[in-house]
Write a structure and sequence with these properties.
The protein has 805 residues and is mostly beta strands. The chain folds into five domains: 2-33; 38-123, no CATH class; 125-283, no CATH class; 314-669; 711-803, PDZ domain (Pdz3 Domain), CATH 2.30.42.
């Protein structure tokens, strides 16, 4: 370009000022063009002795990576691109990128899949097997060169390690569990259980716990180690547990077992499978790509695009680093690891069949970009942004720990830069995660600042969809996400969950009350910037849609559509919640502080406020909109909602999920502001075509039931007691209650002991004169995981516990 223009020089040689402008323009043009880029190609049929051209490609990404390094060594500064042609590439070790391989903002380093074909980077190794019949159903084959197999795949399907009880698709938790998984009469059958695993739920169902079996002791009892995966330790759950990788439990089609002592793999084919035709892959690596730098020498401007990452090994036994008094322990690794980076990312990729985390952004990172990805069928969390405790002032790690007030560092904010900030997780479809570990999230944030989480669709997760583990250091924006089918295997949690056990927090509430009264400025020492939650759609049928737990402070929450679980604010400060719609549920304030400065106003609620031990009501809990006058009056008994009002929102199309208020609704004139309902979730065409949508339940709260209407409820058929005949048959004092008409065997109602003819008169201490009241009581208390019902039978009240799992 420049030589072509140089003939103009003679025309301006007598105008020095024009010459200067001309020279500056030339410099700018050169800068914008940069040194010409170099592209290397990789193909499974290539050779590492090749030149890396499309006609003579390399056979490995490592060879192309080395070629880029050699070009940099001779001074090349242009844009580098590695293009992977379609195929599956099996890695012998993780690909590690250092600071010396960095790109620049003007010339980023791109590693991408070629257009129009699938490119897989596999952490596994293909097995060449000579199968022999072992017994009537079981086959066996010798495996060469592998010390262990932690995960196995056949023809693209993840296989089940020999386990008890056998795996059942869709059964929660764990795909099946059994109280007798560790029964002595079962253990005695196991000749060599060492190398097997116990998986169990936390006794409070706050995540999962995992143990490695080390053998048997002198008495024949099972010996094992582990249980450190939860930062709120407990005994393993008494019934929700299973064992795997034990030869004697190999009894179901699709199960396998690897005997390390003689390098033999055993497998029972599924119906219709020809074992000799199956392509087996054994997982071997826990990570595929690692970018490793530090604050002084970061890896910069490297991006991975359009690649599929598969076959990492499970890492649940390495999940043991305690995370700053949250309930979490973590392992700082993933299929892709960012550690010490600036302006790096993974985009339009697919993560599937992974044993651990998909993407982990650890310690110092700036402007990481995790966008446009499909993340599914993985053992751990999808995307984690987790800083270093070295950046935290006065850190404490376990729930029960605290820093004495006399030793407290009272300088606001972080003390170092070893944490992610100004990063983004956008347009990711996340589903079927936590297949092994249960204390996981679609997006996990801890010891980080200003993380943007927007336009993600997250569902089928065992715990939260989005989790913020502490207040350090806030400034996050959570917006336009679609999060549902959450807390499927655990309890006491939310589709969105947070904790805020920061410097001011103390496990003894009385001590904490005194500290914040004396030192109110300590409240925001860590949560220095406001976290915003807006314009999301949340649904949690086993907890809260939005759950701000222990100490969560400095939040602004507005324009969210909550479809089932309502909104909870436990102890914390400076939460402003307004203009949200809480469908079939309401507001759950728990154990608030004095002078919390909390605000809850102009929200649409469909139950009475469900307070627990709230004496001090913050700055404002008023001007909210109720659908039922009974709920408003029940709420006013706490001395709040003097200006609350009852009205008909006239939802535009609630059955289709459009809860916009109709133009004639008096709630609009009273201050509620309509917001967009459907601009949530993923936006790219590829992911939108794949994504599900949440169930939209009928408006059972705030509505009415027709005379004689039969209602399906937890597997049974119920109706209101409506006639003198029904009253007389039940022996009631008046026409009231909910009549149990039908109770199929094995339904939740049957398991709770209910019978046809029973009448439900109360739920969790609330009278249930009709089905509407029962629905409201359920909505207010279902987060507990069970309901205590007062059932009229044989002329007296019986207390029945209905499990909601």
């Amino acid at each position: 370009m420049i030589p072509k223009t140089m003939h103009y020089w003679k025309d301006i040689r007598f105008f020095p000022q024009l010459q200067l402008v001309f020279l500056m323009c030339c410099v700018l043009v050169l800068a914008s063009c940069g040194t010409p880029g170099i592209t290397y190609y990789v193909a499974t049929a290539g050779t590492d002795a090749g030149t890396g051209t499309k006609d003579n490609p390399f056979s490995s990404l490592a060879a192309a990576k080395q070629a880029v390094q050699e070009q940099r060594a001779v001074g090349s500064t242009g844009r580098f691109e590695i293009v992977l042609l379609p195929g599956t590439y099996f890695l012998a070790e993780p690909l590690v990128f250092g600071a010396y391989e960095s790109g620049t903002p003007e010339a980023p380093y791109i590693i991408r899949a070629d257009e129009g074909g699938d490119v897989v980077l596999s952490a596994g190794i293909p097995l060449q097997l000579d199968w022999q019949q072992h017994d009537g159903r079981m086959w066996k084959a010798k495996v060469q060169g592998l010390d262990q197999i932690k995960a196995l795949f056949a023809d693209g399907k993840a296989l089940v390690s020999a386990r008890y009880p056998n795996y059942e698709e869709g059964k929660y938790p764990f795909g099946g569990f059994a109280a007798d998984a560790l029964a002595p009469e079962r253990v005695v059958r196991w000749a060599h259980p060492e190398g097997g695993y116990i998986h169990a739920m936390h006794s409070g169902r706050w995540g999962g716990m995992h143990y490695r079996i080390t053998g048997k002791d002198a008495t024949g009892s099972l010996a094992y180690e582990g249980g450190w995966q939860n930062n709120r330790p407990s005994p393993m759950h008494g019934t929700q547990r299973f064992v795997e990788n034990i030869f004697e439990e190999l009894d179901a089609p699709g199960e396998w077992y690897y005997d390390r002592t003689d390098s033999t793999l055993y497998y029972i084919p599924e119906e219709g499978q020809e074992i000799g035709q199956l392509a087996f892959v054994a997982a071997q690596l826990e990570s595929i790509i690692q970018l490793k730098g530090d604050e002084d020498n970061p890896v910069t401007d490297i991006y991975f695009e359009g690649i599929t990452f598969r076959h990492t090994v499970p890492t649940f036994m390495d999940t043991r680093e305690q995370l700053m008094r949250s309930d979490w322990s973590i392992y700082r690794n993933g299929a892709v690891l960012f550690d010490g980076t600036e302006r790096c990312g993974v985009r339009k990729a697919t993560f599937s069949q992974l044993g651990g985390n998909a993407v982990f952004v650890s310690n110092y990172n700036r402007h990481a970009d995790i966008s446009g990805n499909l993340i599914e069928d993985i053992g751990g969390s999808a995307i984690c942004f987790v800083g270093s405790p070295d950046a935290v002032r006065s850190p404490a790690f376990r729930y029960e720990e605290f820093v004495p007030a006399s030793e407290m560092d009272t300088i606001p904010g972080p003390k170092g830069n070893a944490y992610p900030t100004d990063c983004i997780a956008e347009d990711n479809l996340i589903r079927h995660i936590g297949m092994v570990e249960k204390q996981v999230a679609g997006v996990q944030i801890q010891m980080a600042a200003r993380i943007s989480v927007r336009h993600n669709t997250i569902y089928y997760v065992p715990r939260s969809g989005i989790n913020i583990g502490d207040g350090a250091w806030g400034g996050h924006v959570i917006e336009f996400n679609d999060v549902f089918q959450t807390v499927l295997e655990t309890g006491d949690h939310g589709a969105f969950n947070s904790w805020g056990r920061d410097r001011f927090w103390h496990p003894d509430r009385k001590v904490m009350d005194s500290l914040v009264r004396i030192h109110p400025g300590w409240i925001l020492l860590d949560a220095v910037e406001t976290t915003v939650i807006r314009n999301n759609r949340f649904r949690c049928d086993h907890g809260w849609d939005i759950d701000l737990d222990d100490g969560s402070s400095n939040y602004e929450i507005y324009n969210n559509l909550c479809l089932a679980g309502g909104l909870k604010l436990r102890e914390g400060f400076y939460r402003k919640v307004y203009n949200n719609i809480l469908v079939n549920n309401g507001f759950h304030p728990h154990v608030w502080f004095e002078n919390s400065h909390d605000v809850f106003t102009r929200n649409i609620v469909m139950t009475a406020h469900q307070q627990i031990q709230v004496i001090h009501w913050g700055d404002t809990v008023d001007h909210n909109f109720f659908l039922d006058s009974v709920d408003l009056e029940a709420t006013r008994q706490y001395g709040i909602e003097r200006n609350g009002r009852v009205g008909d929102p006239q939802f535009v199309d609630a059955s289709a999920g459009d809860f916009s208020l109709g133009k004639g609704s008096d709630l609009l004139a009273a201050g509620f502001v309509n917001f967009a309902m459907n601009d949530v979730g993923v936006v790219s065409a590829r992911l939108k075509a794949e994504a599900d949508r949440p169930e939209i339940s009928p408006l059972t709260v705030g509505g009415a039931f027709a005379a004689g209407e039969m209602v399906q409820w937890h597997g049974g058929a119920l109706k209101n007691v409506e006639t003198l005949g029904e009253q007389s048959a039940a022996g009631l004092d008046r026409i009231r209650g909910v009549l149990v008409v039908a109770v199929p065997n094995d339904s939740p109602l049957a398991l709770a002991g209910l019978r046809p003819g029973d009448v439900i008169l109360g739920c969790e201490g609330t009278g249930t004169d009709d089905m509407l009241n029962l629905r409201k009581a359920e909505a207010s208390h279902k987060w507990k995981g069970h309901l205590l019902l007062d059932v009229w039978r044989n002329q007296r009240i019986n207390r029945v516990e209905l499990r909601l799992e």
